[in-house]
């Protein structure tokens, strides 16, 4: 517990004690003033007593001396001076009696002195009267009696006694006054220093407490600010969780990867405002990733198509972050001019589910990147990967339900569903698409000669051949009976004709081992139609290719006819 807190209970007592001491000091000072005033009065009183005594003694001596001078010289001046002493003696004798009223001893001495002085003055007056009436000789005789001398000795003794007594009193009073003065000084010093010390301790305690209060206040403000920040962060996190939850729900309802990508673009824009990027899907061949959706705005741009080798995230199978503390080793599919790229950050998160690379989420933006964005992007990528995996599994199941069990190729329903999608995709990108229709020649005769089972084996062999000669992105299907169709996205007429020729030649050299007998080879006729020149809808393209196929049959079979002009492939 801090010292200031320990002192708090004693603070009131210290203030009360200080107040008492200060009151005491004030009282002591008043008392000392009174004491000094009283002492001064006493000292003054002693001096007045001593002064009056001295005056009486001097005046009586002067009166004596002048009277004697008058007796011897007869000079009126001396008589006059003698007479001038009389009122002085009278005045001071009366004053001395009054002054000594407080001291019986001195009072008695004063009265005795008054009597002696009066007696002496009467003697002097008698002598002057004799001088004036009977002459100097009689006056001299009167003075020679020695009575006057004795009276003067008595007066001297009395005045000495009075003076000695007063000096003793004065010394005692001075000593008492000095003692009292020291006591007052000590009381004042103690009375001032102690409250000052107490007040100093309290002041220091108050200063410490004030400082501690300020620290506590600052700490409280800091705690409030942190609380507010954590509340804002909590709100932001709960909002992000809400969006991610809603996103998961939306992904579950997505029908296609395309749709999932569009939903992802919207969600990332909401979760990571001020950023931009793209969602890529890796082709089944794993050799090319294609941007399926674009979101936000960014100073950087990522290519529409990219080989996995150009992205560190796809290469390493883990998120790749650039900018700030993450370094500046960017993937080569990311571009930006020198100014805009400066200070920008990028984040590539591979879309991986159950060990399979499915695509890529690329995000970039201006300024510093924080861990929160990375976490959000990775959470989105994780959900998207799972959704893509589910969609692809669903697609696989769907595709399997759309496979022809005899040949392993897609069935006609699958072709009808996917030709439309592929056609739209190529149309969107301004790319061509070709359709090849193929029919085994004289299959009825083959069936008749070798049996239906052998016919099945031949159809399975043709299916296998077609699977071997088509790409992953092509759609090879059994259109019906012994008729087949192959959709070649992003393929021109010329390339499609080359592929058709390869197929024709492969079938022409294909034999079937059945019942230990090698059957065949057989031949096939093919018709080729290409978007956009031969038509812009699935129905028209298939019809044109089919029409070309029948023209090939009519032209003698084992050949290829393109939709717009007749051409022998044999
Ligand atoms: N073994 C077998 N035969 C089938 C199957 N589906 C259809 N066929 C037969 O295929 C034959 C088709 O004969 P056509 O339509 O006359 O044609 P083609 O004999 O090949 O003559 P061209 O097409 O004019 O060269 C029919 O006999 C059908 O019974 C099948 O799944 N297995």
Automatic annotation (TrEMBL):
Domain of life according to the entry: Bacteria
Residue stretches making up the GGDEF domain: 431-565
Endoplasmic reticulum among keywords: no
EC number: 2.7.7.65
Keywords linked to the UniProt accession: Membrane, Transmembrane, Transmembrane helix
InterPro entries the record matches: CHASE3, Diguanylate_Cyclase, GAF-like_dom_sf, GGDEF_dom, Nucleotide_cyclase, Rev_trsase/Diguanyl_cyclase
Top EC class for this record: transferase
Presence of keyword Cytoplasm: no
Annotated TM spans: 181-207
Protein name: diguanylate cyclase
Reactions that this protein is recorded to catalyse: 2 GTP = 3',3'-c-di-GMP + 2 diphosphate
């Amino acid at each position: 517990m801090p010292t200031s807190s320990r002192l708090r209970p004693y603070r009131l007592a210290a203030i009360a004690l200080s107040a008492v001491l200060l009151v005491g000091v004030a009282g002591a000072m008043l008392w000392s003033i009174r004491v000094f005033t009283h002492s001064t009065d006493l000292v003054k009183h002693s001096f007045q007593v001593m002064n009056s005594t001295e005056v009486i003694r001097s005046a009586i001596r002067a009166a004596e001396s002048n009277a004697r001078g008058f007796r011897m010289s007869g000079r009126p001046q001396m008589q006059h001076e003698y007479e001038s002493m009389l009122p002085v003696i009278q005045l001071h004798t009366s004053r001395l009696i009054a002054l000594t009223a407080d001291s019986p001893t001195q009072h008695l001495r004063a009265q005795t002195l008054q009597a002696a002085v009066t007696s002496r003055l009467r003697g002097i007056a008698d002598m002057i009267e004799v001088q004036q009436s009977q002459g100097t000789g009689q006056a001299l005789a009167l003075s020679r009696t020695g009575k006057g001398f004795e009276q003067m000795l008595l007066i001297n003794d009395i005045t000495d006694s009075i003076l000695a007594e007063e000096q003793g009193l004065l010394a005692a009073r001075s000593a008492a006054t000095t003692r009292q003065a020291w006591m007052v000084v000590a009381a004042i010093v103690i009375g001032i220093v102690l409250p000052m010390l107490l007040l100093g301790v309290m002041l220091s305690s108050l200063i410490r407490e004030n400082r501690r209060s300020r620290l506590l206040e600052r700490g409280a403000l800091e705690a409030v600010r942190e609380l507010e920040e954590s509340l804002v962060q909590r709100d932001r996190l709960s909002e992000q969780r809400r969006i991610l939850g809603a996103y998961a729900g939306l992904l579950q309802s997505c029908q296609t990867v395309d749709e999932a990508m569009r939903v992802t673009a919207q969600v990332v824009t909401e979760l990571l405002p001020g950023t931009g990027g793209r969602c890529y899907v890796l082709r089944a061949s794993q050799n090319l990733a294609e941007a399926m959706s674009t979101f936000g705005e960014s100073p950087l741009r990522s290519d529409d198509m990219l080989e996995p080798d150009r992205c560190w995230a796809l290469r390493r199978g883990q998120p790749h972050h650039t900018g700030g503390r993450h370094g500046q080793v960017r993937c080569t599919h990311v571009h930006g001019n020198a100014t805009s790229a400066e200070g920008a950050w990028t984040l590539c998160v591979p879309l991986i589910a159950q060990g399979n690379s499915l695509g890529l989420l690329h995000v970039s933006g201006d300024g510093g990147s924080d861990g929160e964005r990375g976490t959000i992007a990775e959470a989105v990528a994780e959900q998207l990967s799972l959704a893509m995996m589910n969609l692809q599994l669903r697609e696989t199941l769907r595709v399997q339900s759309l496979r022809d069990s005899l040949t392993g190729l897609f069935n006609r329903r699958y072709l009808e569903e996917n030709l439309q999608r592929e056609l739209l995709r190529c149309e969107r990108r301004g790319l061509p698409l070709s359709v090849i229709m193929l029919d085994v020649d004289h299959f009825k005769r083959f069936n008749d000669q070798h049996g239906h089972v052998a016919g099945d084996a031949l159809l399975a062999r043709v299916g296998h051949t077609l699977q071997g000669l088509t790409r992953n992105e092509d759609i090879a299907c059994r259109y019906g009976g012994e008729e087949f169709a192959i959709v070649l996205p992003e393929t021109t007429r010329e390339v499609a004709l080359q592929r058709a020729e390869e197929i024709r030649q492969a079938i022409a050299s294909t034999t079937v081992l059945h019942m230990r007998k090698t059957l065949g080879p057989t031949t096939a006729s093919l018709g080729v139609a290409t978007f956009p020149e031969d038509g812009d809808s699935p129905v028209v393209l298939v019809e044109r290719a089919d029409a070309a196929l029948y023209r090939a049959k009519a032209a003698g079979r084992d050949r290829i006819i393109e939709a717009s002009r007749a051409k022998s492939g044999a």
